[in-house]
Write a structure and sequence with these properties.
434 Repressor (Amino-terminal Domain), alpha/beta, 3 domains, Rossmann fold, about 550 residues, two-stranded antiparallel sheet
């Protein structure tokens, strides 16, 4: 069959839903217009050999003028993003979740308050994929016809004359459905496979998904029990999400290949099925011994065994780094941090922050600007993350140890308050720095009497008159007793200027509350989901000193 676009539904007066649907069709186009059966096959089957989403459900997601269930939409988007070669598949899924959230409240609210209609008119999304018919077939799935959970009837076109009565009717249906699910789940509690199948049917029920998303702030149970990924059920992303998702995906590939259920996993590995289910549903890190047992019983090749353990090590390191970040003090004074430094620190050592590695006590960390691959150190982060405060801390520590400074502040900055301090050779507070002026300010530098340039808002000075002086500093600073400490906004700082590009060769720096992955490029290390995207917390960041290790730190103030 020749690949072709599918007919799009008519969505008059529903701009948000139309945008979601258009984006979904465009995503399929990027993936090469795969058929519904191809998408179904890529999503795969569960441990009981049932399709997770059948081909008719795939077509309905694209062609029905209704808001699709998030669980179904999520797996379809993930498959299309992977087939289309998207670099950040999780990011694409999150983007669609944002689009979905724009329409879910309005759609669900309208559907949830309508009076019930004739149950015979309700649609059944599930079809039998074993029959030989076209993708447009609407034959019902005989597997799910007897196990559906209280399908919510379609909404009437008329507005109920009494909103309070309509709300009461909906609440009664909601509580009845909750009771049914709870009673059935309790009866199946000790048969984990039967419980999983039952909750799988509940999750795929369109009526239950609408109820779950409409109930919002009144739900007493968690998402994993109900089996619905609703917004109000969400928990904070694991700091090792990228590593854990990859690890779980690899485990699932091997598990489904052998058609092992969670009960089978318990029998094969000796690790309880409850533990396996918890690790999967809560984005938790499995025990290492469980992975070793899994690898042994599954007869994995050496490269697969090594890959699983490597992913486990990466996830564990990310979790520990986040744990160290969580226990850091929210703030610390400069004097207290300065007292934590190594008394034998060299003269051009600069205080960047305090943190702990392993189980050690808080320690002051920072770069030695007289050594490394380039005489530079970068402080980057979004606006409001505390870059200027970090630069002031670095400048104060250098002045305290007797190192002279040149300050460059093209925009208002707390650095200007240090202009009158002893040891400050010059302070440039305009949006340009002259070639001759900077050259003269640095003329007295030597290995015995170093001078450090501390620059805020470096993106403003990319084409300043002194760019050749800065380029020379970054090439010969170690010999001439000069170095550069620069700060900039992660969204505006770009290495399009030669001297800025050379500053990146130091491969070290401090990134504060990073929101973009490219922020790590400035400090010489990749920053993934474990670090990027956390809430903006001024003075909290990640320090890289060129050794490949990220240290969670609090910047003194």
């Amino acid at each position: 069959m020749v690949a072709q676009p599918w007919k799009r539904p008519t969505l008059v007066g529903q701009p948000d839903l139309k945008k979601l649907n258009d984006e979904l069709h465009d995503l399929r186009l990027d993936a090469g217009l795969p058929s519904a059966r191809t998408i179904r096959d890529r999503v795969g089957k569960d441990a009981q050999d049932y399709w997770i989403v059948n081909h008719q459900a795939v077509l309905d997601t694209f062609q029905k003028p209704d808001l699709p269930q998030w669980g179904r939409l999520e797996v379809i988007v993930r498959v299309l993003a992977e087939v289309g070669g998207h670099i950040d598949v999780d990011g694409e899924v999150d983007r669609f979740k944002g689009l979905w959230k724009h329409v879910v409240r309005e759609t669900v609210a309208q559907a949830s308050v309508q009076p019930p209609a004739d149950s015979a008119s309700a649609d059944d999304d599930h079809v039998d994929d074993t029959a030989d018919h076209s993708e447009e077939s609407t034959e019902q799935d005989t597997r799910s016809s007897g196990g559906r959970a209280a399908e919510e009837p379609p909404a009437s076109k008329e507005t109920p004359p009494n909103p309070d009565r309509a709300a009461a009717q909906f609440n009664y249906a909601e509580e009845s459905l909750k009771g049914l699910i709870l009673n059935a789940a309790q009866a199946l509690w000790y048969d984990k496979d039967a419980l999983r199948v039952f909750l799988g049917v509940v999750r795929r029920s369109e009526g239950f998904a609408k109820m779950a998303d409409a109930a919002e702030e009144r739900r007493p149970a968690n998402a994993t029990f109900y089996g619905v990924k609703s917004r109000e059920f969400e928990v904070s992303r694991s700091p090792a999400r990228l590593e854990l998702v990859t690890l779980h995906r690899r485990l699932d590939e091997h598990r489904l290949k052998r058609k092992w259920s969670f009960t089978d996993l318990e029998e094969q590995t000796g690790v309880s099925s409850d533990a396996w289910i918890r690790w999967y549903t809560h984005d938790e890190l499995p025990e290492r011994e469980a992975l070793v047992a899994f690898s042994h019983m599954a007869g994995l090749q050496m490269e697969d065994h090594v890959l699983l353990l490597g992913l486990w090590d990466a996830a564990r390191a990310a979790l520990k780094a986040q744990q160290r970040s969580d226990v850091l003090p929210s703030e610390i004074s400069f004097d207290a941090a300065w007292a934590m430094r190594d008394p034998a620190a060299p003269r051009m050592w600069a205080l960047a922050g305090v943190g702990n590695v392993g189980d050690e006590n808080l320690t002051a960390y920072g770069p030695d600007l007289a050594s490394g691959t380039a005489p530079a150190f970068a402080v980057v982060g979004p606006s409001g993350a505390g870059r200027s405060t970090a630069l002031v801390t670095i400048a104060r520590s250098l002045l305290t140890s007797g190192t002279q400074l040149v300050l460059a502040t093209p925009r208002p900055s707390p650095l200007r308050e240090l202009a009158d301090r002893d040891g400050v050779v010059a302070c440039f507070d305009q949006d340009d720095v002259g070639h001759d002026e900077l050259e003269e300010a640095l003329s007295g530098a030597s290995a015995d009497e170093p001078i450090i340039v501390v620059m805020d808002d470096a993106e403003v000075l990319g084409e300043c008159d002194a760019r050749r002086v800065l380029r020379n500093l970054l090439e010969h600073g170690f010999d001439e007793g000069t170095a550069l400490v620069l700060g900039g906004d992660e969204d505006r700082l770009r290495p399009r200027y030669p001297w800025l590009d050379r500053a990146k060769r130091a491969h070290r720096g401090l990134v504060l509350s990073p929101q973009e992955r490219h922020a790590g490029d400035w400090i010489g290390i990749k920053t993934g989901d474990s670090v990027v995207g956390s809430s903006l917390t001024p003075g909290r960041g990640w320090l890289h000193l060129g050794d490949g290790n990220l240290i969670a730190v609090t910047v003194p103030c």
